[in-house]
Each structure stands twice: as structure tokens, then as C-alpha cells.
Specification:
- By secondary structure, this protein is of the alpha/beta class.
- The chain is built from 14 helices and twelve strands.
- The chain has helices at 15-23, 50-59, 88-95, 122-153, 157-174, 189-193, 219-231, 240-247, 252-261, 268-280, 304-311, 313-317, 327-332, 336-341; strands spanning 4-8, 41-46, 63-65, 68-73, 100-106, 203-208, 234-238, 282-288, 292-299, 319-325, 346-348, 359-364.
- Helix 7 (219-231) links the parallel strand 6 (203-208) and strand 7 (234-238).
- The radius of gyration is 23 Å and the shape is flat.
- Residues 25-39 have low confidence and may be disordered.
């Protein structure tokens, strides 16, 4: 199962520069004019996890395979996108396919880089994009709701549930709030997800600041931090310019030295990945052996068969049981055999809820 974050924002805020740096490629052309990115570029990045490094040492694994997160660089949006302005229709179609939105906001002043709105104001920029997404969501719901209401009056129970949910979502959107704040009961969530609303997706704000502000942020990013806190959203401060320079360094020692010179303890990529994991509510489990130690990703609260399915659909289909060791036991007891000898390997069935850091051997029969 893949998890992806769509990188969005107005033109010329640094989306493609950030994407190139994050994926250490030049897959996205970065240039100082709107609509430079026409087709979405996709890049997969490895998720750093110190636990995996420890497991490799203990198990003497020949290969290390980290889990990955996918980033999608989507064309810049402008006012009127919900009505097809610019590359609006294409933008909206692309963003509908991602799991979460990484909203890049320009938080630096540079007279050499044009701003489509005439000046730097990240809160206004955020509002422009959010408004266009809300308008697109309202149009989508209004297009469907009349037909559903007719069916509901005719006694169709499913249509009544959907129509009631749509009415609540429309009211929220008309009040100028995103669909992700619509209060939902657990049984309503799967139905609500079917609407594929753009503003129902979780949001991570990325403040692209000048190099000097990468460690501490600036007045612009402080305002975004307040906005994110009020919305319950995630927020990170990154300098895309610094990330571009770091991406060109292959020697880990050189990277560390460069980051230290900039007053940074880690790359923006690491911060962004951690925030993305938190945003998507993901956890990591491991498979460990002499050939390889590997990290895998599932959503929090996933059960053992779903985790098995992340490795191969046959594992989920023919799931029998999961031989499970928690991470701390594996490490403190010196690996699988030590954990077995201490009685720390458990046999878990189909209802077992995966815990972050679990180490699995799946038994299956297809």
C-alpha cells in the first residue's frame, strides 16, 4: 500500500525546487514562471528510522530496506482554478488522487522571483488555495445532492444517509470552513470518504523561508504556525534553497558539517517525512532476517492481516497467524532467538492490532 502527499501551492513559491531537493532528482523543472509544472511529477523518498539501523546490526542483515513515502509535485494553482482558470481542472483532478496535502507557502522576500499575487503574504496565499478547493467541493456536492434527495424521498436508505451527510458538508463549506472539520461518527467516515472532497484531506503547511531563517523561522512562518495550531494542522519550516544544496552532497559527514554550519540538526526532508507520517497517522513495522531487514508502513489501528497484505496480497488472503516480537524486546534480548528464549515471541491472530515497531513473521497458506 502506498501513501502519497501532493505538494501544492501558488506558482513560484518553491514547490518544484522543494520536490527536487526532497527526491534528490531533477525530475521537476524549476523555473521562474507560472505553470512550469504541467504534469504531476512523482518521487519516492526513503523514510529514515534509527530503529531499522539497530535491527540490521543485531540480525547481521545483508540488506537494509527502509519504508518509503511518495511525493507528487502538482501544477501551481491560481485564483479561478475552480472555474478552470490556469491549469485549474487538471490541478483539481491531480489533487483528488493524493492521501494528504503538503501546502507550500512562500515565506521569503526576493525581488528576483515574481509573486503572482504581487507581494509576500502566506496567509493570503493559503486562503486563495483553500478557497478554490472549497469552491470545487461545493460545486461537486451541489451537482450530486439534488438527485440523492429525490431518491431519499423515495425511501432509498443509502441515498438518505449520503444526502444528509452532503447537506452537513455543504453548510460547513458555505460557512467558509474546509470539509475536514465536518463532525463524523465512525460509521459515517467510509461514506464521507466516497465524496472525495478536496478539503477533507489532512493538510501540512510547509513554510519556505530564506536560508538565514531555516533554523528559527521568521515573522511570516510564525503567522502560519498560529493558523496551523488553530486548525489542528501540521506545519514545518524549511528552506528549499538549503535542501537543494544538501541534496547535492553525497558524503554523510559533509552533509552533517554543512547542516551544522547553517545551525540545523537535520535536513528538512526528515522533518517533512515525520510530519507527513503524523499527518497520515501511519506506523512502521519490520521484517528482519539474515538476508534483509525491512521497514513497512500501515495506518494506525491496522490489524495483522492488513500488515501482511502490505508485503503481499497473498499473505493477507491466506493469513494464519503473525509471530510477533515487540521492538524493545528484540533489541534488549539480542534478537529473535533471545526473544524466543525469554518467551517474548507471541502468536497473534486476525484481530491483533499492529503496534508501532512490531517485528513480524507471517504464517499463511494460499
Amino acid at each position: 500500500m502506498g501513501f502519497n502527499c501532493g505538494i501544492v501551492g501558488l506558482p513560484n513559491v518553491g514547490k518544484s525546487t522543494l520536490f527536487n531537493a526532497l527526491t534528490a532528482t531533477q525530475a521537476a523543472e524549476a523555473a521562474n514562471f507560472p505553470f512550469c509544472t504541467k504534469e504531476p511529477n512523482v518521487g519516492r523518498v526513503s523514510v529514515p528510522d534509527p530503529r531499522l539501523d539497530k535491527l540490521v546490526v543485531i540480525a547481521k542483515s545483508q540488506k537494509t530496506i527502509p519504508t518509503q513515502l511518495e511525493f507528487v509535485d502538482i501544477a501551481g494553482l491560481i485564483r479561478g482554478a475552480s472555474k478552470g482558470e490556469g491549469l485549474g481542472n487538471q490541478f483539481l483532478a491531480n489533487i483528488r488522487e493524493v492521501d494528504a496535502i503538503v501546502h507550500v507557502l512562500r515565506c521569503f522576500i526576493d525581488d528576483d522571483i515574481t509573486h503572482v499575487e504581487g507581494g509576500v503574504d502566506p496567509l493570503r496565499d493559503a486562503e486563495v488555495v483553500e478557497t478554490e478547493l472549497m469552491l470545487a467541493d461545493m460545486e461537486s456536492l451541489e451537482r450530486q445532492i439534488t438527485n440523492l434527495q429525490k431518491k431519499a424521498k423515495g425511501g432509498d436508505k443509502d441515498s438518505k444517509i449520503k444526502a444528509d451527510l452532503m447537506e452537513r458538508a455543504l453548510k460547513i463549506l458555505q460557512d467558509g470552513k474546509p470539509a475536514r472539520v465536518v463532525p463524523l461518527d465512525p460509521e459515517e467516515r467510509p461514506v464521507f470518504k466516497q465524496f472525495m472532497l478536496l478539503t477533507a484531506k489532512p493538510v501540512l503547511y510547509v513554510c519556505n523561508v530564506e536560508e538565514a531563517a531555516a533554523a528559527t523561522g521568521n515573522a511570516f512562518s510564525a503567522k502560519v504556525a498560529e493558523k496551523a495550531k488553530a486548525e489542528g494542522a501540521e506545519m514545518v519550516v524549511i528552506s528549499a534553497a538549503i535542501e537543494s544544496e544538501v541534496a547535492q552532497l553525497s558524503d554523510p559527514a559533509e552533509k552533517a558539517e554543512f547542516l551544522e554550519s547553517m545551525g540545523l540538526e537535520e535536513t528538512g526532508l526528515n522533518k517533512l517525512i515525520r510530519a507527513g507520517f503524523k499527518l497520515l497517522d501511519l506506523i512502521t513495522f519490520f521484517t528482519v532476517g539474515p538476508k534483509e531487514a525491512r521497514a513497512w508502513t500501515v495506518r494506525r489501528h491496522a490489524k495483522a492481516p492488513e500488515a501482511a497484505g502490505a508485503i503481499h496480497t497473498d499473505f493477507e488472503r491466506g493469513f494464519i497467524r503473525a509471530e510477533t516480537i515487540d521492538y524493545e524486546s528484540f533489541v534488549t534480548l539480542g534478537g529473535e532467538q533471545g526473544a524466543k528464549d525469554a518467551g517474548k515471541m507471541r502468536q497473534e491472530g486476525k484481530e491483533y492490532v499492529v503496534q508501532d515497531g512490531d517485528i513480524f513473521h507471517f504464517r499463511f497458506n494460499v
